[in-house]
Amino acid sequence: MFMKLKDLHIMDCPKLPLVSAHNLPALEFIKVKSCDKLKYIFGQEVELGPLEDMKLYRDTLLTNRYKGYAYNCLVELLKFFQTHSVLDALGSSHSEFVGLLQDVRKFSFNKDWLVGVEKRALFSDLQFSRDAMQKLLDSKKEVTKEIEEMRLKIYFFNQYVEDIKHQLTSHEAVLASIIQQEEHYLETTAALSAPLGY
Prior knowledge:
Blueprint: E1 7-11, E2 29-33, E3 53-56, H1 61-83, H2 86-90, H3 94-105, H4 111-122, H5 130-193
Parallel strand pairs: 1-2, 2-3
C-alpha cells in the first residue's frame, strides 16, 4: 500500500487489467496511456477520495467506463439542481451539493462550461435575456426622466408660490395702509362735522 502516493502515471502496460484505488488513499492525479486491457482503476465500488485530476489516452475499455462515470456524475449534479433550491444548496443539502460538485470537477469537463451550467441551474430564476435587460434599462431611463420633470415642476411651482406669498404680503400691507388712512379720514371727518362748543 502506498499511503502517500499523490501522482500516478501508468504507461505502456498492455496486459494490466486493474489498478486498485483502495491501496492509494492519497492519490490526487492519475495519468493512463496505452493500457488496452485496463478495465478498472476504482474496482466495483467507486470511491474517488482526494483525486483531483485524471487523464486517459486512447479509446480503451477504461476510457469508455471513465466517460460513462463522468457523465453519470454530471447527471446526478443536474438532477440535484432540478430538485433543490439555491437555499437548499447553501443550507440543509450543502454537503450533498459540494460532494456532487467535487465529483464532477474531477473529470475533464471544460471548467468554464461547468461553471456556466452551475450558475444557470442555481440562479435560473435570476437570469435575464439581453432584451429583458434592455427593457429594464429603458424603463429606468424613462422613469428617471419623469422624476426629473416632476422635480422641475415642483421647483417652478414653489417659486410661483413664493412669488404669490410676496404679492399677498405686499397687498396685505397696502390694504392695512388703506384701512389706516380710511380710519384717519373718518376720524377727521367726524371731528370736522362736530359742532363747535363755545
